[in-house]
Amino acid sequence: MFFVKANSTLIVRQGIPLNDYSEELAKIIDRSPDANRFVKKATDDYLLGRLGVLHGLESGLDKAYEGVEKLLKAFILFTDQSLGGKSQGKKWGHNVLGFLEQAKSNGLKLDPECERFVSTLKFHYGIRYPDTTGHSYSFGSDATHKIDALFFQLWDNFEPIYGDFLCMHGPYEPIFGSQTPMNFFVQHMLQALAPDNRELEKRNDYLVSEFKKWEERLSANKHD
């Protein structure tokens, strides 16, 4: 399992650890509060989507698709300075494939299989209403793994923005905050995230390493 031992000063749902080291992280969040809000909603959509698909519920694919849209918008807000970190609201629309191309032009990387799965989710989302004509995507037991792979690959692209933002928000938020005392929300998020999640297992060594670095910096700041 994972190395998770969050410091008691970490308030995950607010996104800002209450210590001196949080100043730089707070600056990143302040650079685009809208992007941070998109990330949080995308994480909720992802967890709802993976749980639904894990239990054979077709509508989970739709929530996953909505999460992809929000995560792409967040990446664009962080990387496109011309937007000033401000959400474009209704002007943006819901052209997820267009957002994907824009994000790629801003440096986002995604393997071909994950890109194809975005198109699959888009197709499924287009026929989500019962009176829509079209054949539903027949998903098998690997669909949850495809959702996990897509979200974690998207999230990996946030590391250059700021490493601690990567670890303390998004899909990693439940890991770093899972041991925070009285953090009811994060405990339940972890229960939704962890079951049969191969992508989390792949990144275990990275999470262990980053958490140890984070604790070392916290300790150093306390002694300054």
Compact summary:
This protein is mainly α and 224 residues long.
Please characterize this protein's 3D structure.
The radius of gyration is 18 Å and the shape is globular. 61% of the residues lie in helices and 0% in strands. Helix 2 (33-54) runs antiparallel to helix 6, helix 3 packs across helix 5 and helix 3 packs parallel to helix 6. The chain is mainly alpha-helical. The protein is built from eleven helices and no strands. Residues 1-21 have low confidence and may be disordered. It has helices spanning 22-31, 33-54, 60-79, 96-105, 112-126, 143-156, 163-168, 173-177, 184-193, 198-202, 204-223.
The arrangement of helices and strands along the chain is: HHHHHHHHHHH
Low-confidence stretches: 1-21
Strands, total number: 0
Kindly report the average pLDDT value: 82
Q: C-alpha Rg, in Å?
A: 18 Å
Largest sheet data? none
Helicity level: 55-70%
Work out the helix count.
11
- Beta-strand portion reads under 5%
SSE inventory with pairings:
Elements: H1 22-31, H2 33-54, H3 60-79, H4 96-105, H5 112-126, H6 143-156, H7 163-168, H8 173-177, H9 184-193, H10 198-202, H11 204-223
Helix pairs in contact: 2-3, 2-6, 3-4, 3-5, 3-6, 5-6
Spell out the key features of this protein.
224 residues, mainly alpha
